[in-house]
Each structure stands twice: as C-alpha cells, then as structure tokens.
Amino acid sequence: MTDPAAPRPAAAPVRILVCDDHVVVRAGLLALLDSAPGIEVVGEAGTGEEALALAARLTPDVVLMDLQLGAGIDGVETTRRLTAATGAGPARTPHVLVLTTYDTDADITRAIEAGATGYLLKAERPEELFAAIHAAAQGRTALSGPVAGRVMANLRRPRPALTGRERDILAQLATGLGNREIARALFISEATVKTHLRRIYDKLGVDTRAGAVAVAKEQRLLP
Q1: Which of 61, 161, 169, 218 is placed for a possible disulfide with 105 were both Cys, Cβ 3.0 to 4.6 Å?
Q2: H or E, element range at 129
C-alpha cells in the first residue's frame, strides 16, 4: 500500500530539440534552457533537414523551431514534416513551438496551418518561454501576446468576398503574369482583366499589384 506521506516522484523533464540556423543564437538558447527547471535539451540543429533526422533519433517532446533556416527547407516545411511523421506512433511525434522574430499574419498562419502548437517571439522573457515549452509539451496552445492579438483580429475581420473570376485573376497575378498573359491564360480580353483588377484592388484596399498579392497571401485568398 502506498504511503500518502511519501514524496511524489518528480515529473520527467520536457525533452527539447532546438532548431536555429544562427550559431550564436542557438548557443544563447542552449545556455538559457540549461538553467530552466523541468527542461532537458537533448539536441540542437542548424537546418530543417538536420532537425528532422535528430527528431527521428532522439524523439523529443518539443522542437523549438525558428522559421528562417537559410539554405534547405524552412521552419514551416520542417514543422509540417515533423507533425505529420505519425508512422512511428503518436509518442514519436513532437510538438513544435515556433520561436522567431517574424510576426506577420502570413508567417503566423503558415506556421499554425503546418501544425505548430505554439508561436512565440524572440523578444519574450525567459519565464514566458519556459512556460510555453511546458504548455507545448502538453499539447496546449502557447502564443505570444502580440501574436494572439493578431490571430484574434484576423478571426474577427471579414474576408473580402471575391468572385470566382476575381480569384482566378488574383492567382494568375501572384505568379507574376502581366495583364496580357492573364487574358490569354483565362481566355478573356485584356480590358476585362483590367476591370476585374480594379474591383480586386477596391475589395482588398490596395492600389498596386504587389499590394493585392501581399494582402491575398495574408488573408489566405490564394489557392
């Protein structure tokens, strides 16, 4: 019979893999995490490919992931592959906590859609980072305050109602085609393309082609 007065066994530390392509930043994170209670760094990676290989071998609970990783696959694609790697069983699928300097709507959306459990900015205090790691290890969402604010604002913001033809033209626009090429691709006149573009600009609140593409990416209006 268990003695209720006996000390409870300490919880196992959260096993974490750090992925960041900047050696100095990575070293700083390792030193910081080494002082954190209940966290054990089991490996470090400088590329997405290296993170995938190490995660398969070390089976961390959480992968701390930067978004921009230089050459090779980026943090979003690495996150997608890590969270989709369920062939070896759920226990071998780590949670991914993004830690980055980028807080644009497009970056946040891409990371979350790729399967990231949390999204933190590098400006956060150490205590916030430690808490987010423990939350991520339990599968709970962890977002920096500014990121959470942007997510909520986007959810509340009505998306522009584009017609099917306007979406077609916007998709062609995103590939870098000019009006004449778009007209040929969609079998419509160049004048019709210009008319649709004016309507697209009005609905998106922009006045340039680049602006239309940028807003469309942020608001997930492109296929």
Answers
A1: 218
A2: helix 126-137
Among all chains, which residue has been given the structure tokens 């943090």? 75
- The rounded distance, in Å, linking the Cα atoms of 151 and 155 is 6
From the list 33, 41, 49, the residue with the least C-alpha distance to 17 is 41
Query: pTM of the prediction?
Result: 0.67
The answer to whether residues 113 and 83 touch, using CB atoms and an 8 Å cutoff, is: no
Taking Cα atoms as reference points, which of 170, 167, 162 lies closest to residue 209? 170
- As given in the structure block, the two tokens for residue 40 are 């054990």
Three-class secondary structure of residue 194 per DSSP: helix
Cβ–Cβ under 8 Å, residues 14 and 130? no
Cβ atoms of residues 90 and 46 within 8 Å: no
Q: What is the pLDDT along the chain (223 residues), one digit of tens a residue?
A: 445 444 444 578 999 999 999 999 999 999 999 989 899 999 999 999 999 999 999 999 999 999 989 888 999 999 999 998 654 444 468 999 999 998 777 788 888 888 999 999 998 899 999 999 999 999 999 888 888 777 776 666 666 788 889 989 999 999 989 999 999 999 999 999 999 999 998 888 888 888 888 888 877 777 6
